């Protein structure tokens, strides 16, 4: 092979990447696909028609893990840590050198400040929640007038249905302003959780508690707004929202023993059962106007999801 031919091949191999780049730049590009405003609106409308929430309305709920210690509220964990840290600081100071070195004194002051902050964290969290409505429950069940804390599931339900009802009630109680949740279908209350009316709560007896709630709910007048929401006969009666207690009397909700005396607002969301029939997700709170539009939309989405399990 001649030197001239070898040189031409080397030059050609070096220019090959340049040629490829030039070809790529010269190649026609496909125009970007632009989604028209009309199409975007149609997609969002279709999503909302199916019972889902649009991208602008989705609020990601973060579930926290709990220690599961009976009678212990996990929000007091920082306080326990702060008290333990303070006790260790006292022990360290007593067993330390005398006189205490300046570096140790500075560390102890910093540790005492952090321990005090940990002790105050639950109170700070409560004040922040009071200042920012729509960020979770405000009061414990025992602080609501005429209420008793409880969690009852119908024993005859399948395991999958029990898990779904437990998830739904937990998510609503932890991430909205409601204080109590109940699910009723076929004239029976299948699940109740949170701050419930003390008159229908039998501690440790789920069957008796649910039976008392079911009997009370079946006594609601068929012409009342609560009964219409349970039946969901018309499109306008799929959701009953009573933002304050003033509307309880005319809607038939004032006689519900399921609601504690301190309940100030009520939401009854119809559950569209595959075979039809009265069913509803009942949510209430000790605060008036506790559920914003987004939260009421979330309740409607949860009710649609529960339709396959109740």
Automatic annotation (TrEMBL):
Organism: Chlamydomonas reinhardtii
Family matches, as PANTHER family: PROTEIN COFACTOR ASSEMBLY OF COMPLEX C SUBUNIT B CCB2, CHLOROPLASTIC
InterPro entries referenced in this protein's UniProt entry, alphabetically: CCB2, CCB2/CCB4
Record Pfam families: CCB2_CCB4
GO terms classed as biological process: cytochrome b6f complex assembly
This protein's name: CCB2
GO cellular component: chloroplast
């Amino acid at each position: 092979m001649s030197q001239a031919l070898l040189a031409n091949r080397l030059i050609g191999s070096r220019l090959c990447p340049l040629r490829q780049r030039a070809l790529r730049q010269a190649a026609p590009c496909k125009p970007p696909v632009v989604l028209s405003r009309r199409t975007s609106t149609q997609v969002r409308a279709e999503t909302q028609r199916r019972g889902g929430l649009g991208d602008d309305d989705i609020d990601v709920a973060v579930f926290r893990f709990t220690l599961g210690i009976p009678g212990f509220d996990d929000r007091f964990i920082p306080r326990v840590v702060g008290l333990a840290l303070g006790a260790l600081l006292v022990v360290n100071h007593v067993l330390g050198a005398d006189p205490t070195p300046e570096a140790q004194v500075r560390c102890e002051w910093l540790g005492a400040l952090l321990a005090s902050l940990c002790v105050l964290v639950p109170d700070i969290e409560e004040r922040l929640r009071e200042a920012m409505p729509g960020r979770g429950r405000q009061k414990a069940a025992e602080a609501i007038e005429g209420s008793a804390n409880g969690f009852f599931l119908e024993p005859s339900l399948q395991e999958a249905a029990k898990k779904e009802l437990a998830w739904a009630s937990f998510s609503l109680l932890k991430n909205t302003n409601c204080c109590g949740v109940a699910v009723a279908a076929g004239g029976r209350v299948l699940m109740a959780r949170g701050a419930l009316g003390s008159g229908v709560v039998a501690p440790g007896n789920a069957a008796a508690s649910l039976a008392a709630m079911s009997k009370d709910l079946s006594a609601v007048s068929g012409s009342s707004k609560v009964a219409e929401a349970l039946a969901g006969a018309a499109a306008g009666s799929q959701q009953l929202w009573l933002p304050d207690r003033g509307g309880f009397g005319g809607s038939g909700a004032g006689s519900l023993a399921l609601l504690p005396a301190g309940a100030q607002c009520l939401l009854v969301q119809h559950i569209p059962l595959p075979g039809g029939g009265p069913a509803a997700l009942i949510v209430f709170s000790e605060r008036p106007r506790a559920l914003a539009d987004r939260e009421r939309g979330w309740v409607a989405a949860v009710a649609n999801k529960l339709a396959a399990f109740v």
